[in-house]
Amino acid sequence: MRAIQVLFVVAALTLAACGGGSTGAESGAATDPTPTTQAPVTTEAVPTTTTEAPTTTESENGESAFSDLGEFSSFGAGTYTMVHLGIPVTFTVDELWSTQPVASGFFVITAPDSFGPGDHDIVFLRPSAVFDADTGEPSLAADDLDGWLATVPDTVSVSEPTPSTVGGFDAVTFEVTNDVGSVPLLVAGTGPDPLIKQIIPERLFEVVWLDLPNGPPIAIVLGTTQDDPGWLDIARDVVATLEIG
């Protein structure tokens, strides 16, 4: 009797298994297919070489002028022309230098070991305004050097301006140092990023101020650390080579 029961149970389980397989097939029709991940496609970028066009501006006589130098580049011994001051200016160096910020209204060159403003550099500027040194406001005319000298605070030491000639133009030259804070001298450039030249502490500056017959003057600011005043002789040698116009 027990054997018959066992056979009956086995038969029932077999039928149930067959029924379950049918249900599974129906569910399988709704089952998502095995997902396939597509390998990413990698495209190698083709390097782009950009050649900076020469800097060109109009000189005062209306002729197109060419600048040999762009910004943030090294250059060795030779003679070079800048046109960023509105009039062609040529200078000669006999050792390695580097350009720094360069734009309409100003041109900066530095010795290779320069670190920061006023450290072994020559800054050429065509002022658009001169600061009132006491208030820090650019309220003076672009040619009003006397106004700046009259407003410098007691923390600024200025030597007696000495008449000189640079590039065939009358000039005055003076040395200036500052003990506390930064004192603005002038602003140059009319674009979105004009250059504000400041007299900062721990530096020795020599300012060469050239009066031009047409337009604003040219200001040349030589800067060195106070513990290396002899470097100014190197900068003066460069300024002595200037040809303007």
Topology overview:
Layout: H1 2-29, E1 55-58, E2 64-67, E3 74-75, E4 78-82, E5 89-93, E6 97-103, E7 106-110, E8 121-125, E9 127-132, E10 137-140, H2 145-151, E11 156-158, E12 162-166, E13 169-178, E14 183-188, E15 195-199, E16 203-210, E17 218-225, H3 232-239, E18 243-244
Antiparallel strand pairs: 1-2, 3-6, 4-5, 5-18, 6-7, 7-8, 8-17, 9-10, 9-14, 11-13, 12-13, 13-16, 14-15, 16-17
Explain this structure to me?
With 245 residues, this protein is an alpha+beta fold. The chain has a single domain, classed as Protein Transport Mog1p, Chain A (3-Layer(aba) Sandwich), CATH 3.40.1000. Helices cover 18% and strands 38% of the residues. It has helices spanning 2-29, 145-151, 232-239; strands spanning 55-58, 64-67, 74-75, 78-82, 89-93, 97-103, 106-110, 121-125, 127-132, 137-140, 156-158, 162-166, 169-178, 183-188, 195-199, 203-210, 218-225, 243-244. The strands form four sheets. Strands 3, 6, 7, 8, 11, 12, 13, 16 and 17 form a nine-stranded antiparallel sheet that branches. Strands 10-9-14-15 form a four-stranded antiparallel sheet, with helices on one face. A three-stranded antiparallel sheet has the order 4-5-18, covered by helices on one side. Strand 16 (203-210) and strand 17 (218-225) form a beta hairpin. The chain is globular. The N and C termini lie far apart (127 Å).
